Amino acid sequence: MNLNLFGFQLFAKGFSGQDRGSRSICNLALINGPIELIECLLTQLLSPYSIVSPNILFNISIFNDSLSQRQLHDLCMDTIDLCSQNLFRISPTNSLREAMYHTHLVIVLEDFRRRIEESVQDWLNRMEWKTIRCSEALNEVASDFCRIIVGGDGPQCYVAEVNRTSNNVRMLRSN
Question: Which CATH class is domain 22-167?
Answer without folding.
Answer: alpha beta
